[in-house]
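To illustrate the input format used throughout this study, we show a single complete record. The first block contains the structure-token representation of the backbone; no residue identities are included at this stage. The design step must infer an amino acid for every position from geometry alone.
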């Protein structure tokens, strides 16, 4: 078990390095959290999608991953709702930082949406297969108020 978690941390760290090497706009804060995860061995909040799949858990009010790295092409995101409230996973194609989106009526604009896993009830799950081009994306839960409480993150496609 311990060995497994160390491997996962190393993988996440390597991925953060790759992201930086790609000249992406990975913020220093996400690099910092990846380093923190590596040093604490807490499992981390940086997810490297493998095999075209990414498993994300939603809680009140955060996602299990703050950053996700994936390869271009099909990515199936599975969302598990471990919270008490309904949550969703909306993927937006934008170069904006996850925390910098404009909020109106408690939600952000979905005009840049490239797909979503909508309205997953407490204890439930859902999934969606996105077909992604390289670039920067932001994922949010757009249930009113949830984005502002921290339900957001960055997806980088290489
Ligand atoms: Cu939510």
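Output of the design step:
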């Amino acid at each position: 078990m311990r060995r497994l978690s160390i491997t996962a941390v190393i993988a996440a760290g390597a991925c953060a390095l790759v992201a930086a090497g790609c000249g992406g706009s990975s913020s220093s804060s996400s690099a910092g959290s990846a380093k923190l995860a590596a040093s604490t061995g807490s499992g981390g909040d940086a997810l490297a999608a493998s095999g075209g799949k990414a498993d994300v858990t939603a809680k009140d009010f955060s996602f299990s991953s703050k950053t996700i790295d994936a390869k271009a092409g099909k990515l199936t995101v599975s969302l598990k709702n471990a919270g008490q409230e309904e949550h969703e996973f909306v993927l937006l194609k934008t170069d904006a930082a996850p925390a910098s989106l404009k909020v109106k009526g408690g939600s952000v604009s979905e005009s840049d949406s490239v797909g979503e896993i909508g309205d997953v009830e407490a204890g439930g799950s859902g999934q969606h297969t996105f077909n992604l081009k390289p670039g920067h994306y932001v994922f949010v839960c757009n249930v009113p108020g949830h984005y502002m409480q921290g339900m957001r993150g960055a997806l980088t496609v290489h």
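Structural context for interpreting the output: The radius of gyration is 15 Å. Residues 60 and 83 are 5 Å apart (CA to CA).
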